[in-house]
Write a structure and sequence with these properties.
The chain is an alpha+beta fold. It is about 20% helix and about 35% strand. The protein has one domain: PPM-type phosphatase domain (Phosphatase 2c, domain 1). A five-stranded antiparallel sheet has the order 1-10-9-6-7, covered by helices on one side. The structure holds manganese (II) ion. The site of manganese (II) ion has 6 residues, from loops.
Length: about 200
C-alpha cells in the first residue's frame, strides 16, 4: 500500500496445521504521523490469535499515544493471558523522527536511505520481557529519519539473518515477500512488515 507519507507491505505465514496466525500487525496513520507495530503472542493457534487481537485492539484507537503509554495499556489489556512480545514504532512526519520501543523478540531493523553513508542498517534494541506478564521499564528511543528510510519488523518465526540480503532497493511488499520466502523457520508463525517513509503527508 502507498500513501503520500509512506509505503508498506507485509508477508505472513501461519504455522502449518493451525488455522489462525498468532502474529498480528498494525499500520495506523494519524494526523502528522503513523503507528507501526508487530505483535507475537506466545505460542500459536487460536488462543494466541485472540491475545494478539486484544493488543491490536488497544493499539489502533490509541495510535497517537506515546509508546510507553501504549505499551503499558497493552500490558493491562492482555494481563492474565499467555502474553506477547511486541515492537512499536511511531513516526512523526513534521519532526522527522521515529520513536521506537520493543519488548521481547520482535526484531526491528532500520535500513537507511540508500543515498546516505554507513551505517545503513541499524538493529533496534529490544528489552527483555513479556507484555501482559513481565513488562520492563519502557524507555522509548527517538531517532531522526529521512525520506527513503525503511523499517523492517520481523517475528521470531523469521531467522534474523535476513539482514544479509539488505539493503535491497525494491518496493516494500516485494522485500517482505523475499525475506519471508528465504528466512521463514516454518516452526512458528512468521511475519515480516516493511515500512518505508516517503517523507511528507503531501
Ligand atoms: Mn513467535
Amino acid at each position: 500500500m502507498t500513501t503520500a507519507a509512506f509505503e508498506w507491505g507485509v508477508a505472513q505465514l501461519t504455522l502449518p496445521g493451525e488455522h489462525e496466525c498468532g502474529d498480528k500487525y498494525v499500520v495506523e496513520p494519524f494526523e502528522g504521523g503513523a503507528l507501526v507495530a508487530v505483535v507475537d503472542a506466545l505460542g500459536h493457534g487460536r488462543e494466541a490469535a485472540r491475545v494478539a487481537d486484544a493488543a491490536v485492539a488497544t493499539l489502533v484507537p490509541n495510535a497517537k499515544e506515546n509508546l510507553d503509554v501504549l505499551m503499558q495499556r497493552c500490558h493491562s489489556s492482555i494481563r492474565e493471558t499467555r502474553g506477547a512480545t511486541m515492537s512499536l514504532a511511531s513516526f512523526d512526519w513534521r519532526q522527522r523522527t521515529m520513536t521506537w520501543l520493543g519488548v521481547g523478540n520482535v526484531v526491528g531493523v532500520l535500513m537507511r536511505n540508500f543515498q546516505k553513508t554507513s551505517p545503513r542498517i541499524e538493529s533496534l534494541l529490544v528489552r527483555a520481557g513479556v507484555v501482559g506478564y513481565q513488562l520492563p521499564d519502557p524507555h522509548p528511543l527517538v531517532m531522526p529519519i529521512e525520506p527513503g528510510d525503511t523499517l523492517i519488523l520481523a517475528t521470531d518465526g523469521v531467522r534474523d539473518l535476513f539482514t544479509e540480503i539488505l539493503p535491497a532497493v525494491i518496493e516494500p511488499q516485494r522485500l517482505a515477500n523475499r525475506i519471508l520466502t528465504t528466512y521463514a523457520k516454518h516452526r512458528d508463525d512468521a511475519t515480516v512488515l516493511v515500512f518505508r517513509c516517503n517523507g511528507s503527508e503531501g
